[in-house]
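Fig. S4 source data, part A: sequence.
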Amino acid sequence: MNNSRQPVRTTIFYGLICALMFIPLGMFFERTALWPVFFRVTIFAFLAAYAFILANWTNKRRISVIFPLLFLFLFIFGQSSTAAFLLLCLGMLSWIRSGVCFQNAFPKSLGGEILFSIGGGALVAYFSPYSTVTWALGIWMFFLVQSLYFIVMTDIGQDEEHIPVDAFEQARIRASGILKQASER
C-alpha cells in the first residue's frame, strides 16, 4: 500500500503534530489580547492544511477546497464568538470531506458527518478545554475521532493493495469459470 494514502495513521499523526505545535504558540499568545484571534487563525491553519491533505488523498484539485476555506477565513475576523467559529469549522470540514473529497450518498454522508464531525466537536466540548495544554489535547482527540471516519466511511487505499496471483492460479480460476458456464447450459 502506498504510504501517502494511509489516512488513519496520517490523520492521527497530523493531529499529534497540530497539538504539539499549538502548545508553544498558545503559551506565547495566551496572556495577550491577541489570544482569540490567534486561536481562530491557528485552528483555521490546521483545518486548511488538513483540507489540502484530504484533496491530495482523493486526487482532487486543490482549488476545489479553496472556496470553503475562503468562506471560513472571512469569519476569523468577522465575528467574536469562538464557539460559533468552531461550529463553522466543523461545517466546513464536513463540506470539504463529504462534499468535495469523499462523495457518498447523501444519507450516508450526513450520518457520517454528524457522527464524526459533530461527535468529535461535542467530545472536545464535553471535556471543556480551559488552557493551552487542554486545548492541545482536545485538538489531538478531535483528530483521533476524525481518523475513525476513514475506517467506517471510506475504502481509500483498498484498491491499491493487491495480492499477486501466479499464472497457474489465474489459469485455474479461468478454467473453473469456463466449466461453470458449460455446466449451466
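Fig. S4 source data, part B ends here. The longest helix spans residues 7-29.
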